[in-house]
Specification:
Structural class: mainly alpha
Helix content: over 70%
Oligomer: single chain
Radius of gyration: 16 Å
Number of domains: 1
Number of helices: 3
Low-confidence stretches: none
Strand content: under 5%
Largest sheet: none
Number of strands: 0
Shape: flat
Length: about 90
């Protein structure tokens, strides 16, 4: 990998890391604001799904891994988020 390619990869990783920090700050602010309701729950699950996808594909370097690995890990993430969403929905009055 050339020096330019490393610089681009480093910049991408830094930008993704900053995006993860911003997403974490957003979810923290929502929690501190005591926001609630189905729309907030959906937003928080969407942010968690996006963060998990970035971690799996970019920081775990599975973007170029065999399809089965990506399906397994992203499927697991989707299943966990779906089960949390279902539990929230079922628990609503």
């Amino acid at each position: 990998m050339s020096h330019a390619s490393h610089a681009i990869a480093d910049r991408r990783s830094t930008l993704l890391w900053l995006a993860l920090l911003a997403a974490t700050a957003l979810t923290w602010a929502i929690g501190e604001g005591h926001a609630s309701g189905p729309a907030i729950a959906a937003l928080l699950l969407a942010v968690a799904m996006a963060k998990g996808t970035v971690v799996i594909l970019d920081f775990m370097a599975l973007a170029r891994a065999p399809l089965l690995w990506r399906i397994a890990l992203l499927g697991w993430l989707a299943l966990v988020c779906a089960l949390i969403g279902l539990a929230y929905w079922k628990g609503m009055p």
